[in-house]
Every structure is written in structure tokens, then in C-alpha cells.
Specification:
about 0% strand, DUF1657 domain-containing protein, DUF1657, mainly alpha
Amino acid sequence: MTVASQVKQSLASLKGIEADLSSLALRTQDTESKRTLHETMMVVHEVVTDLKKRVGELEREEFQYKGF
């Protein structure tokens, strides 16, 4: 497995985690838990955003990784 495919696989996993945290935050009744889940989701979202940028850099630097 190439570095680019591992990074893209990690990105997909993080997007799933972000979606799960969002779903849990919407479904929970406890205000404190809801806030904590939302804050955690926002941190994961920042990581997703940064990783998307890195994927773009990988694809620009290494054309063979494009589209994986």
C-alpha cells in the first residue's frame, strides 16, 4: 500500500468518525455530552481539512498517486 493510499484511507476513516460524532451529538439528551461530542467533532473536522490539503499536495507532487 502506498503512502498516498494510506493517507486517503485515513481520511476516509476520519470522515466516518466525524459523521459518527455528529450523529451521537444530535441523538444524546445530556447537554454536557452533546457539547463534548460536538467539540470533539469540530477537532476531527479540522484534522480532516488539514488531511485533505495534504492529499492535494501528494497528488500534485506525485502524479502517480492521483485518483487513488
